[in-house]
Amino acid sequence: MKSMLGKLAAALKEQIAGCNDLAALEIFAVERLGRKSEFNNLLKGLGALPAEERAVVGSMANRLKQEVQAAFDAKKSELESASAGALAEQERIDVTVPGTRPQKGHLHLTTQAIQEVTDIFRRIGFTRVRHPEVEWDWYAFESLNMPPDHPARDEWETFFVDAPVSVKNGKMVLTPHTSSGQVREMQKKHLPIRMINIGKCYRRQIDVSHVPMFHQFEGLLIDKNVSVTHLKGVLDYFAKTFFGPDRVTRLRPFHFRFTEPSFEVDISCGICLGTGKLDGGAKCRLCKEGWLELGGAGMVHPNVLKAGKIDPEVYGGFAFGWGVERTMAMKSGVRIDDIRVLYKSDFRFLQQF
Ligand code: FA5
Question: Given strand 170-174, what is the order of strands in its sheet?
Answer without folding.
Answer: 134-136, 170-174, 159-166
